[in-house]
Amino acid sequence: MAMLRTLSILLSLLLPAHSARSPDCGGILTPSGLRYRKCRPTSPLPAAGTGGSDTICSGGETSNAGPRISCHYRNQITSVKVDNFSLTLIPDTGMRLSIEVDLGVTSAPSATKEMRLSILADLHVEMNPDGNLELVTSDCKPTLEEVQSTEPHVHLSPLFLLFIPQICLEVSKLLLFPNERLMSLAAPFPITPSCQVQYLPLAAPMYSEQGIIISLQTTFQVSGTVIPLPISPVPFSMPEPARSSSSHVILAFSEHFYTSLFSALEESGALNVSLLSSLTTATLSERITQMGSLFQEDLPVVLQAVTRSSPHVVLEEDKAIVQLFLTAQIGAGSLFQSFLSVNVVSGSTLSLGSVCCEDIELSLAASDVGPILAALLEELFLPTIREEVTAQINVVLRQGVFLPHIASFTYTDVNITIHKVGNKTFKLLPAVLDLKEAWEQC
């Protein structure tokens, strides 16, 4: 079960696709990820009296001690030990589930057998009539062989042997857990209270020596409405992972994905900020003489910055830059009377959960207090915009963005790298999985 839950980390992304858009991110579940399991070691489990038997009992004569029961032992499973449970990748085809179980079978009080039940099942992903992708079996072969017996002639009853073909039905039941999770993950993931993200596949995953590969398209919703995003000018395809990588999952996010993310934040208003400046109208009137005619009393200066066009993200080798285009309205008063409008172009380094402002350009857009030299504009307002506006945007970014995931999984040991492949740039997140609640689920 743990192996199937590991497989669900990628299959949780398999939701109906919108063919009108191209992929902008993707993931690879590597062979190491398929082999990953976090379970208690299996040990023999007593099964006597639990229904794993083929026993006929009849009532006899009644005595003072109670009714006399006569039982004829057929076959009873007295112990079960899962010796092997593995999931391997078959390139260009799918996966193979291998299960080996040691059974202790009793056909009489003194006659026992050790049997080996082997199950080989081929798995793949297909789309059902409802438009959801699900994990199914394409072939299943159970075999039962004798390992050891205490008596030379211990026979399994025909009734016991009839249960062997039913094993494949039980294998199909094992897939209910990941498939239920797939159906439950159609809801978008929140970014902000009004903005959500959803990852959708364009097709069923592909299988290669590198792992299970899926290309995803991202949709963003603001207040429940999907926002239109431009098609990426550069087609996306998953980059080849390093063969020496020990990561369980590799996620790749294109330059277009990050531009779309910031566009969604802009649409939701998450990048708009309002803050108090350290300046007042009195201190400004010392440098801008016409301020005195607008404000007769000393009032704190307020800065309101809103986006005026969509942000743009540029990924370079080992570096990510986000460009923000803002308009800062500078004013004062309880009803906010604006007296300056300043265009702001900010170039910031994008790191995990924050931006670091490196370059800011200010230009005067409108003024009610006469012309202002560019040098004076920067002297008065650049420090506040550089520090306070960036700090408030970082508050939003530190909330993070949900990666493609499934409940009970956690990414650990995440290593972020930015690679340029030809004219395509990817942000790679190799990660190791950690299963929560695995002890209880295995």
Automatic annotation (TrEMBL):
Single GO MF annotation: lipid binding
Signal peptide: 1-19
Ranges of residues in domain Lipid-binding serum glycoprotein C-terminal: 243-431
Superkingdom field: Eukaryota
Pfam family, one: LBP_BPI_CETP_C
Keywords for this protein: Signal
SMART domains linked: BPI2
Name of the protein described by the UniProt record: Lipid-binding serum glycoprotein C-terminal domain-containing protein
